[in-house]
Amino acid sequence: MTASVFFGCTFIAFGPAIALFLFTIAREPLRVIFLIAGAFFWLVSLLLSSLVWFISVQISNKESAVQQKGLLIFGVVLSVLLQETFRFAYYKLLKKANEGLLALSQEETMPISIRQLAYVSGLGFGFMSGAFSVVNILADSVGPGTVGIHGDSQHYFLSSAFMTMAIILLHMFWGVVFFDACEKQRWWAVAAVIISHLVVSCLTFQNPEYVTSLVPTYVILFLMGIWAFYTAGGSFRNLKLCLTCKDKDFLLANHRPR
Amino acid sequence: MSNCSCYSAFLSFAGVSCNSVEKKIYVHLNYTVSCVRLLNATHQIGCQSSLSGNVGVLHVLESEENLDWVLHSGPNPPYMVILESPLFTRSVMMKLKNGSGRVAGVAVVAPNTNPAEGFSPHTTCPNENTGVYSETYEPTMANCNMTVWNPLGNGLSYEEFDFPIFSLKDDNDTQVIRQCYLDHNRAGNGSTPQYPLCAMQLYSHMSAVTDTATCMRRNAINFSLNPEMVCDPLGDQNVWASTRPLNNTAKGHKMWESVVIAAARLDSRSFFFDIAPGAQSGVSGFVTLLAAAHALRNATQEAQPNRTILYTFFQGETFDYIGSSRMVYDMENKQFVVDLDNVHSVLEIGQVGLRADSKLWLHTDPVSRRNESVNKEVEDLIGNLRSAATGLNVTVDVPGFSQPLPPSSFQRFLRARPIPGVVLEDHQSAYTNKFYESMYDNAENLNVSYPPNLTPEEQLEYITDTARVATMVARALYRQAGGEESQLSSIKADPQIVTKMLYSFLVRSNNSWFQQLGNVISFLTGFVCVVHHDFCCLQLVLNRNCTIRIFACSTHFPPPCDSSHLVPQMYNYMWVQGAAPPNSTEREGYCVRSTARLSKALSPAFDLEQYTSKNFSTWTESRWKFIKGRIFLVASHELEMLTLGVGVGVLLSSLLVTYIISSKADILFSSGREPTNATY
């Protein structure tokens, strides 16, 4: 459409992610490293799933639309499962790495906690996933035209950007919940993460009915956000204290010696 | 995500293209023919788009009054105007030219049949400044003061437009464009059309500006490793052949050699680039001369006439006589096999296709005929032509009043010295060609038509012309060259050859006959090229008419036709692909020996670096990167700004929220803190 649409959609899709990166990750080199490693793991999972999908498309019957649609669904499900598998693999790797880092470092305490790792790796997954979802759409939004000459909906760029924002944040929440569940051996939580990821991905099959795909996605985003908040150590009481600015007393009252 | 099946984006090397987003937005135009920019010593003509293409909202013009919507009242400028061919007139185009930024471009829909009334985008007086008539040579005849040769000319080809003008065929793609307009851009009764609107983008950015001197200067700038050329001089090769072999390495005057020049023109043009069918203006002339040369092949070998006949085919005559001025210049500077002293007379074949009442007119130059000796020679030539026409059902006549020569290559010879000559045309005064130098000057204009059910091979053989004019020209040339009377009756042009040539040059050049001759370059356009490519087709056709097959070479690939008894300074040797014999698929090629050669047809102004010359042609053609177009929908400006606003709002609010959360993170995430060894 033009530069204004390009920038608008970029800010919508990557705005929260950029804000999170700037304020929480950019100052700590270790967090940056783990973010990039997380992004790389997601990329490998995509490579594997696209390899499988590509081969299956080549051997399939290209004329049959039903078969192609079925292959697409198969591809999406496979990709989700592979992404979660790689998230688990990254978790295992990080556990091992943390022990190694501890052995190497001079300090007694771990340089980075597993909770922070969960957040950082989730955000890394989110960045890469968002990039692959939306960058080619953004590249085409720079031109003078908008979607619609063949009858498609005009709101393609906007809804893609909002969907990408949701996916990035969701990956972050899923990372937090997933790692915590693996720590505490709560496998039902892992299954819930996988199922919610599947649900969100399959909701996109509703496109171009953007309302039916975006609204449930944001509902799931909100619920996962609350779950992740509680998992990360938040509570309603803390939230109330923060909002009513009574936090200073709280700190003093709850001061514990280390 | 199923927005785009983009797993293959990662594996795009395998050739699975995943640009389905672009396919949702744009429909590319398949057939893009645009007008291009040409420059000469003083002006630039043609069209230009901006570097990133011109975007405009589509509007199909219904009538000339509808221009008011485009120019004044339409609410969504700039507009891209689609013109049907009846509206492609000078008045509409001039109004659009003065549209002051509301016109982004024009697309003209070319009809499938020629319009009933004529259309000629050329000027009314072609090549008026580089002919022989000027202030110093009979000013009363200069600048078409006596006869306006092309009265239908509206001069559009020589105007400058600052928006792109494309030509569309009337086919399915254009129907898509019209449908898009009807669906989205059509205003209801008095209401303005709603966004999204259908729009088109046309790219035809031209690199050269101002005039030839400027662009040649810019060509010469050599700062970088890859110097970029911005324009090229128009020019190509002339083709010439002689009935007696002439020593090509000994240039300049040839003793005892008297030459009759039989000239024709090869090229033509139209408003758009590379569309130049030129059926009546070019093809009719040179096909006639080729057929005459073919008819003379035996008589000039067995009973050689006194004088040599030099067949010359000039390239670039449309643009101020590039080919003929070059040949005359070479003759004057001893760079050609003969020089002007060797030239006895000139017979030029002009536009001879549309003979009403089978009548042909012989035009001469009255000024040079004031000289007695020249007048006598001209009368002899006219007499030869008249007597050659007897018994052939063709009448020739002189116009009967003092009239200047029509625009013809012979004028450049007259500029050098008064040579006797005649130009053969089918019009007594003004042109009978209603479509001079336009895209409609095609086979339909010449009434070259075929019954509907013929295959291309059958069309190739279908007799469309009886070649009487070619026979007359051949006999007249033979007489003029001093041949014997007795041979005249045996000189006959072959209608088969004429019909094959007309088919190949007007309808389709990729046919079996042309393929026998060698590498077929598409010759369907007569536009003079800027790339110096081997003018293969015409030269080879000339070979076939004037040559003798001497020996067979290996058939697998063209060998260098070397053998000890070849005489390259007298003859030109070439490899001809040949036809496949009935039982095999391998073609049997052979070498031909001919006197046909190419000579450079580049205006002397470029060799002399006189880029503002008034004597020679200074035409150049601009270079461009690509010419393409596409259609799509555009959204309203408000929606775009809204998107940007929402994006900036999301970014700022997320920055704010994140800052707040991260500064209060100790508190928010305090419960469930790991008991020991936790750091932030």
UniProtKB/TrEMBL annotation, chain A:
Subcellular locations according to the entry: Membrane
Record-linked InterPro entries: Aph-1
A biological-process GO annotation: Notch signaling pathway
Transmembrane segments: 6-25, 32-59, 71-90, 117-139, 159-179, 186-206, 212-230
A Pfam family the protein falls into: Aph-1
Membrane topology: Multi-pass membrane protein
Keywords, ordered alphabetically: Membrane, Notch signaling pathway, Transmembrane, Transmembrane helix
Family according to the record: Belongs to the APH-1 family.
Protein's name in the database: Gamma-secretase subunit APH-1
Organism expressing this protein natively: Lates calcarifer
TrEMBL record, chain B:
Keyword entries, A-Z: Glycoprotein, Membrane, Notch signaling pathway, Signal, Transmembrane, Transmembrane helix
Superkingdom of source: Eukaryota
Presence of keyword Cell membrane: no
GO terms (BP aspect): Notch receptor processing; Notch signaling pathway; protein processing
CDD domains: M28_Nicastrin
Protein topology in the membrane: Single-pass type I membrane protein
Spans through the membrane: 641-661
Every Nicastrin small lobe domain range: 34-208
Gene3D superfamilies: Zn peptidases (3.40.630.10)
Family: Belongs to the nicastrin family.
Name of the protein in question: Nicastrin
Organism listed in the record: Lates calcarifer
Gene for this chain: NCSTN
